[in-house]
Amino acid sequence: xxxxxxxxxxxxxxxxxxxxxxxxxxxxxxxxxxxxxxxxxxxxxxxxxxxxxxxxxxxxxxxxxxxxxxxxxxxxxxxxxxxxxxxxxxxxxxxxxxxxxxxxxxxxxxxxxxxxxxxxxxxxxxxxxxxxxxxxxxxxxxxxxxxxxxxxxxxxxxxxxxxxxxxxxxxxxxxxxxxxxxxxxxxxxxxxxxxxxxxxxxxxxxxxxxxxxxxxxxxxxxxxxxxxxxxxxxxxxxxxxxxxxxxxxxxxxxxxxxxxxxxxxxxxxxxxxxxxxxxxxxxxxxxxxxxxxxxxxxxxxxxxxxxxxxxxxxxxxxxxxxxx
Length: 324
Fold this sequence. Notes:
It contains nine helices and 16 strands. It has helices at 16-30, 46-57, 63-87, 119-126, 152-164, 197-205, 213-222, 271-283, 308-321, and strands at residues 3-8, 35-40, 92-95, 102-104, 113-116, 130-134, 137-139, 145-147, 168-173, 194-196, 226-230, 238-241, 251-256, 259-263, 288-294, 297-302. The chain has an eight-stranded mixed sheet, sandwiched between helices. The longest helix has 25 residues, at 63-87. The chain is globular.
């Protein structure tokens, strides 16, 4: 029986109504005969709220105690989802990171997963339970709670998928995939059906807030296909794997007010695209501080602020025209 791992972000489990949508998604896949492991984040802005409350008590908080505090957000989500699924007639069990056998190094606030003892997870799956695991957390050699850093639930999900030899790891959020540029900025943004791990890593490092960098690295190392989808619709998502389709530009990212990056496999060998970018820069009389070209990225830093109009022009030329 195939095992699949599903991860739901904070916006997906923000309240009881959204938890019901998540439960229905889980049940739909469970009914198809899959073993289901679910990783959840804290609800909504819970982590920010906990940090704020801690800072009201002390401006100099200890990392160990912050890990103990922040880990409770994910534990609340797991327990609520398990309560709901059991009430709906489906056997489920919630596990903290340490109950799930996630062992990390001793670095609080930004721990690295060292190994996962999957015995407890496998035992519950054998009993056809839906296993719900708190993301973002583990335990070190001193039996202290550790957390993996912001976005760490993605890393938890892919690491568990790798440890279990899962067929796929689905990352559910309020967006339905990876786009050629930020769809909140440009109407012309197009959803990508597939990306290589290398392309996704590059996009993440350049500021695309879709996946935690470390989860993509784990996915690539253990060949776990990662599928990003929306919790709130059934549209196809984006598959991140080691399969590279063709050498085309995939996405254009504006990291901050003065840096734009163009990402796609084999970009270093496509002189036409490099020339198009330089032509746009010259036409708009933009002053560059740095122009870097690597195997799958062109990255330009400008002296002054760059408007979204420039991003739109580059996107139009390199995505809408060249890749038609």
